[in-house]
Amino acid sequence: MFTHSAIAGLNTLEMLVYNFVIKNRDKVMYMTIRELADAAGVSTTTVLRFCRKLNCEGYSEFRVRFKLYLEQNEPPQANFGASEVISFFKSVNNDEFDKLLDNTVDIILSSERIIFVGAGTSGALAKYGARFFSNIGKFSNHIDDPYFPVTNDMAKNALAIVLSVSGETEEILRFASQFSLHHCKVLSITSHEHSRLAKLADFNISWHVPQMRISGGYDITTQIPVIYILESLGRKLAKKIA
């Protein structure tokens, strides 16, 4: 039901509905369209568009299909936070997403050097990605300082893989723009393709997991999808290099 292509077609407001549905699975099937719209902070029209993009004619059909989806696919019990991760893996378990990864590997192979970029938690994953790819045989660097100078030499024939949960961090956007200005290809890995980073990049892989912040604004969104994408790309790359 929640395939990668279906979720990728949702706009920003429709993603609010999706995020609420994923986090409140047990409640949604008993809510009216007005109750869901109010809870997600959108209009009933947005909820209807959301339903239609999931190939449901209306909200009533969505509730029926969603109930069947839960009965057929969901485990009886899940640990806290597992529902978002389970939904991610189900959305990418298809030939379409596999083809997206294959195309990305071809881009990686055609690039002389790989530069992983990220800040904060994404910076730690950029370091992990660079090491993982280097272990495979594709020497890579990582940059976790968004003010690191970008030069023509480092950008020539390179691919910058930019990691960002929101895709809206100003420092990362500015850094990605510098790579583009130096004619360096940019691949973004973000939580959604409607972010500014995804639109700025030449290529994008999105993972559609709701962002989670705690008091103080600190991001504690799961990074399991990012690790899965990086390792999947790496393993596909290893097969082609071998």
From TrEMBL:
Residues 104-240 form the SIS domain. The keyword Hydrolase does not apply. SUPFAM superfamilies: Homeodomain-like, SIS domain. This is MurR/RpiR family transcriptional regulator. It holds the Pfam family HTH_6. Residues 1-73 form the HTH rpiR-type domain. Keywords: DNA-binding, Transcription, Transcription regulation. Gene3D superfamilies: Glucose-6-phosphate isomerase like protein, domain 1 (3.40.50.10490), Winged helix-like DNA-binding domain superfamily/Winged helix DNA-binding domain (1.10.10.10). PROSITE patterns: HTH_LACI_1, HTH_RPIR, SIS.
